[in-house]
Specification:
Blueprint (H helix, E strand, L loop, with lengths): L1 H4 L20 E6 L3 H12 L4 E7 L2 H10 L4 E4 L8 H8 L7 E6 L6 H7 L4 E4 L4 H12 L23 H9 L6 H8 L3 H15 L4 H12 L1
Length: 224
């Protein structure tokens, strides 16, 4: 399985100083498009015995696959990723009653990203421009039930549904007029049929469409 091939599990066990018994560890999952960032995060979290890295992924699709297969408490997720970005991950998880807590960790200079992440259900936000210790503290706080964000104003949300589409969703929307089946779309894009179905559902939800025909019609109307 491609996700687990990229995962690293930390085997160190923390102990409670008062009784010498193993303390519960916080299981983490990581997703970032940059392998060097992932390696840096692995090294950072390995320094704290309260944390255990369960799995890592290089894009949002693989991260969502890990959610189905690997139990973890907190996910540290990039905002800009191929196929399914941070917004896509949050949108997919916010309707799940048992979804892990997600922290967006990004170098994006867009000041609106924290607001979008909060509106989509993220539990924390940390900038790559901050010291690594800030991310570590955010992870521990979110794991304990806190929400960690800079000041954001969520009174106004992005009203353009097309602006919320991910790179993969735009790719699929552009292919819909060709009449390709889900299986044919999957072969063309190199992903599974189930992943196509997931993206189609998300696409329809964002555009307020019930089916392919309505999604295509809304796309064509926007261009005119």
């Amino acid at each position: 399985m491609r996700v687990m091939a990229k995962s690293i599990v930390i085997s160190r066990i923390a102990t409670r100083p008062e009784d010498g018994q193993p303390a519960p560890q916080i299981a983490l999952a990581l997703a970032d498009k940059n392998p060097m960032v992932l390696e840096g995060l692995r090294s950072l979290f390995a320094t704290d015995p309260r944390l255990r890295l369960a799995v890592s992924a290089t894009d949002g699709e693989r991260f969502l696959d890990a959610v189905e297969r690997v139990p973890f408490d907190v996910g540290v997720v990039g905002w800009v990723m191929p196929y399914c970005d941070g917004a896509c991950v949050l949108d997919a998880l916010r309707k799940r009653a048992t979804a892990p807590r997600i922290i967006i960790y990004t170098g994006s200079a867009d000041p609106d990203v924290p607001r979008q992440a909060l509106a989509l259900g993220a539990r924390g936000f940390s900038s790559k421009s901050q010291p690594p210790q800030a991310l570590l503290e955010t992870v521990l706080a979110v794991a304990q039930g806190s929400m960690v964000f800079p000041f954001v104003d969520v009174r106004t949300l992005n009203e353009d549904p097309f602006a919320r589409l991910t790179e993969r969703e735009r790719e699929i929307l552009a292919a819909l007029p060709s009449g390709l089946s889900n299986a044919e779309l999957a072969r063309r894009l190199g992903i599974s049929v189930n992943t196509i179905k997931f993206h189609l559902k998300s696409l329809y939800d964002k555009l307020g469409a019930k089916n392919r025909a309505q999604a295509v019609a809304r796309s064509m109307a926007r261009r005119n």
